Amino acid sequence: MEEWACLRPTAAKENTSSPADVTRPFENLECYMVLTKAEKTVIGSICFLAGPITLLENALVLVVIAATATLRQRPSYLFIGSLALADVFASCFFTTSFLDFHLFRRSDGPTAYLFKLGGVTMAFTSSVGSLLLTALDRYLCIHQASSYKLLLTRRRALLSLLILWTATILLSSLPLMGWRCPTGLSPPCSRLFPYINQAYLACWTSFTLVLLALILVAYALILCKAHRHESSMTTMKGAAGTGHARMRMDIRLARTFGLILLILVGCWLPALSFMLADVSVVLTHTQQRAFAFCSTLCLVNSAVNPLLYALRCRELRVALLQLLQGLCEIGRCKKSTGDISPGPPTEEENDCSVFTEDEMPKNPQLNSVSEMC
């Protein structure tokens, strides 16, 4: 293909006196630096805007959870903290490496490039994995409401996070440990990432798709449970109960979960689709440029995650207000605190997953679902 003519052997290949030079390809990373000036401006603006916002939002969530004892003890907030930590890493690794490569055209060696890319891979994989743990937490909360505290203890939550982060770090380190292109830039290398073997790219993409599918299944099961519960409650109450102004709980949950899943799939599916295509066909420069834009949507997803999963939670918002109040008092800031609501409930008061208060059901077993973050 003419667009990949830059992937040619070096002239040193003709020198038979140097066997090392015979197998060394002409590593021209400019084959991957395909953005036009206008595209650099647009994508650079997205990164410069979304990167700091993502970092500040998720760092704020981490600080609030770490500074509030009642939140630190609850598995639900441990998962949200893991999500925030992964998105902090994503904002740092992705923004710096993406801008460094595509905008500033920095050509690193294989080890340096794969180390940076490994950081991005670890961050995004941990982010999706934390979303899965959050979805499973809510699934257990509604399907095993009576035994939720026994099934999901703080120790088990920490163990699951340890397994998640160990697996993601190991998976992200495989190219550094040797699973890379044997010929540098020529096939079977990826057309999207230098030095990345297409088999590794297919493995990581498939793993991420499985995580996303499990998230979809978990929320679908939650909606089915909520729908069956609401139908039974409507039957018991009769027609009189159908005239309430508030929507049915299952409809509210469908709306909320639909928004969450729409954002998740909309941000991840385009980039993953290009990765799958890269394994089977030779991508053009136009497709490479499209992938560069789609990859920034993953960063946008990390910026939206705190708004969907953390800052919508009443307990975390109250803890944030109390933290700001404490900082104001330390700085001798005179501010009235009479309207601040009571602190977050203890673990005994709310022993299930965290959800938003605008979807409060009347059945205590589904209380956590109505407070969905």
Automatic annotation (TrEMBL):
<dbReference type="InterPro" id="IPR000276">
    <property type="entry name" value="GPCR_Rhodpsn"/>
</dbReference>
<feature type="transmembrane region" description="Helical">
    <location>
        <begin position="289"/>
        <end position="311"/>
    </location>
</feature>
<feature type="domain" description="G-protein coupled receptors family 1 profile">
    <location>
        <begin position="57"/>
        <end position="309"/>
    </location>
</feature>
<dbReference type="GO" id="GO:0005886">
    <property type="term" value="C:plasma membrane"/>
</dbReference>
<dbReference type="GO" id="GO:0004949">
    <property type="term" value="F:cannabinoid receptor activity"/>
</dbReference>
<protein>
    <submittedName>
        <fullName>Cannabinoid receptor 2</fullName>
    </submittedName>
</protein>
<keyword id="KW-1133">Transmembrane helix</keyword>
<dbReference type="Pfam" id="PF00001">
    <property type="entry name" value="7tm_1"/>
</dbReference>
<feature type="transmembrane region" description="Helical">
    <location>
        <begin position="111"/>
        <end position="136"/>
    </location>
</feature>
<feature type="transmembrane region" description="Helical">
    <location>
        <begin position="157"/>
        <end position="179"/>
    </location>
</feature>
<feature type="transmembrane region" description="Helical">
    <location>
        <begin position="256"/>
        <end position="277"/>
    </location>
</feature>
<dbReference type="GO" id="GO:0043005">
    <property type="term" value="C:neuron projection"/>
</dbReference>
<feature type="transmembrane region" description="Helical">
    <location>
        <begin position="77"/>
        <end position="99"/>
    </location>
</feature>
<keyword id="KW-0297">G-protein coupled receptor</keyword>
<keyword id="KW-0966">Cell projection</keyword>
<keyword id="KW-0675">Receptor</keyword>
<dbReference type="InterPro" id="IPR017452">
    <property type="entry name" value="GPCR_Rhodpsn_7TM"/>
</dbReference>
<keyword id="KW-0812">Transmembrane</keyword>
<keyword id="KW-1003">Cell membrane</keyword>
<keyword id="KW-0807">Transducer</keyword>
<keyword id="KW-0325">Glycoprotein</keyword>
<comment type="similarity">
    <text>Belongs to the G-protein coupled receptor 1 family.</text>
</comment>
<keyword id="KW-0472">Membrane</keyword>
<feature type="transmembrane region" description="Helical">
    <location>
        <begin position="199"/>
        <end position="223"/>
    </location>
</feature>
<feature type="transmembrane region" description="Helical">
    <location>
        <begin position="42"/>
        <end position="65"/>
    </location>
</feature>
<dbReference type="InterPro" id="IPR002230">
    <property type="entry name" value="Cnbnoid_rcpt"/>
</dbReference>
